[in-house]
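Note to self: keep these together.
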Amino acid sequence: MRLHRLDITAFGPFGGSQSVDFDDLSAAGLFLLHGPTGAGKTSVLDAVCYALYGSAPGARQSGQGMTLRSDHAAVGTRTEVRLALTVAGRRLEVTRQPPWERPKLRGKGTTVDKAQTWLREYDATAGAWKELSRSHQEIGEEITQLLGMSREQFCQVVLLPQGDFARFLRADAEARGKLLGRLFDTRRFAEVEKRLVERRRSTEAQVREGDAALLADAHRMQQAAGDAMDLPELAPGEPGLAEAVLTAAALARSTARELLTVADCRLTAAETDRAAAERDLADARELDRLQRRFAEARERGALLAQRADAHRAAQERMARARKAEAVAPALELRDAADAEHRRAAATETQVRALLPEALADAGAAGLAAAARRAAEELGGLESARRAEQRLADLVEERAGLDRQERADEDVLHEAETWLADWETTRTALQARVDSAQQAAADAEQLAVQRDPAQRRLAAARQRDRYAADAQEAQRHALASAERAVEARAHWLDLKEQRLTGIAAELAEGLTDGAPCAVCGALDHPAPARKIAGHVDREAEERALAAYQDADERRADAERRLGTVREALAAAAAEAGETPTARLAEEAEELERRYARARAGASGTHAAQEELRRAEHEREQRITAQQQAAVRAASRVGNRERLESERAALEEELTRARGSAGSVAARAEQLERRAALLTEAADAARLAEDTAQRLKAADARLADAAFRAGFDTPRDAAAALLDDAAHRELQRRLDAGDSEEAAVRAILTEADTAAAAQRPPADVAAAENAAADAGRRLRHAASARDAAARCCAELDRLSARATGSARRLAPVREEHTRVARLASLAAGTSADNERRMRLESYVLAARLEQVAAAATARLQRMSSGRYTLVHSDDRTGRGRSGLGLHVVDAWTGRERDTATLSGGETFFASLALALGLADVVTDEAGGVRLDTLFIDEGFGSLDDQTLDEVLDVLDSLRERDRSVGIVSHVADLRRRIHAQLEVVKGRSGSVLRQRGPA
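Structure:
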């Protein structure tokens, strides 16, 4: 990598645009970057790093890039860094612009522009630049891939900070490990250690969880086995826990099976005793049952002897009832015939009472003949009925003609009256329509004037408010500007005073034996002292914060004033110069006129609709008048026709009505008479028929009673029983017979009679003996069930514990293996004799490479006296791997690098930095680093050592490298002719470049 040109604008302390031509500076191989403290020497290196990686190194890094902008830059100047370089044989140009808070193009206030990045490549064939990308991410990945280094590695390899390497020489193993870890990116080895520890914890947790489950099953087995099992005194995770639990489970299962065998024997004996007791109880209960059965049978026999007379009477009553059942059908038939005859005779009597006296005693045949004659006369009245209906229709039609005539007369009169006033009505309605249309036209014109008037009135009111606000905002802006000017002047005064006494402030941090942060010297013979009224950083920062706060308030006040003035100008342009009160009066008058016009225009549609309805009504009335005249002419002929037809019909009806008032009345008389005669004939015939049937039924009943053995039919009827009485009597007879048979059967049973001869049975004693045997059986069964459950539970838990132990075995083996690897990688294992961590082991190899590369330059700088060697010895009780010693050829002894003097520490750290640059470069893929920067430390060297160091740096030109030395040591300005000077001033720093002589 070779730098060609660097262009800086508004970056860091540089308020304007500055350029650095590295090709000119690199021509001599060595060039010096110098300037007073705080001028911005390091900012040049920051610009190189920012151009490549988009961020500044170390503490100056900012995620947003806002702090990179120069405080001395003009408001409209944007911060920009452009770097031209050659890397991997490609000529590139990187341009970066951090985020920029600038004034808005329109209006007041500020806005933030996003960061911008460009990457271009020079095409030698075309002789022009070619744009590659404008993406931050793509450009960052491209630069990192080409250089083969991260930003941290670049800052350590290309921008060599000597203070860091001096601390590296004096640091302990842990501090060295952190620095080397950042440079060589050994995080993957640390991740391996971390993953091994996590895996060890994970497997250990699994083993503990599995052991806890085994112990839980062991506790359950102990609860199931009682005192027959002893638990192992081991905690989860301890070796041998699974084997101890399984051994104890096997012993518990064996003991439980022995107890189950004993319980089976006791249960068999109890079952035998229970069966014998049950048999004795059954025999006692059977004997007691037979004895009670025999006694009950004898008691029932005595009761039957007492009821013998009543039983015989019931048998005789049942016999008479069975005889009477043969007469029952004849009795029922005679009762039915008698009831039917009674109903027919009553009906005949009622009907004959309604007949005329001439027919009251007539027979059924005479009544039927009179009914036929009335029906024939009724059939002859059908024509008269039609004539009567037609006459009624004629009367109604004549009445309709009269009503129509009266209605037509009313229509003619109303139409003539309405049409007489038509012209007056039409003129009035047309006038209303014209007036409403004129009002609508006026409303449209006023509506056009109404909105502009309201806008002018609103604008005038805003104009008045903004005028008052503008005066107040102007007073506030002037006051804020005065306070901002005063705060800036105060801050600049304090800053100037602090810069004047900065040497005293730096001198406070000096300690004997420690290098100066400015010149690197270890001796401080005359440090500066603070004077009275010295201004420190805190006072300057407070003044700066006060100025920034006042300036922000000034900007806010100016933005507020500009906003109010713009609003005032806009309102005045629209409202004009007319006073607000006059505009309000004009707007109110316009609103009143507009409301009146709207009210008048609202009746347009109603007036037009009313005129249309009136014209339509005129046409309807004229049409009705003409139709009424036509109907009057046709009514004259209809009246004559109706009169002639009515006279003929009335003559016919007079003949048909006879003495009745109408044909319908005459027909109704004949219908009632025919119906009455027919009903009387039917009733007479029915009465005669029922009388004959009753006579025949009496004869059959007398014959049936005689054959059944009864003297009269009345005796037979008395002997009959209804269904309920018959069933009850039969039930009593059957119960008596059944009881007698049952008693006889029991008394003749051999076993019952034999039981009656034996002593009384003792059932209570047998029941007590059976109960005792049952209790003993239940106790034995419970004990046997408990033993069986214990065996089953122990078998189940043992099987589960065996399965858990089998599944846990691979996990336990993996835990043992992972724990051994984790302790080995962490340096805590006994196998790791040097207690060296894995990451430290890798870094130790890198440190050994760096020490070998640094020794080649250190021997030249120290005239062959010193050599850097890597040491992996342990220090005290700590860990080994990152020790660094120096071998003194004059004494032949090896000692720690922390014992070197200030100058020796400088050239040792310089050699270490150059060696580290070579190793990191080789690891980065062999990318050639043609430009290096070395920061400070030369002030601690004597002339001879300085010459030797410069000779070593000058030898880098043999490899076509250029080295930039960052220092303010005056002797270097005499020795190195190619220089880049940073000159600071109140308006910012500037760069002055001088090529080799």
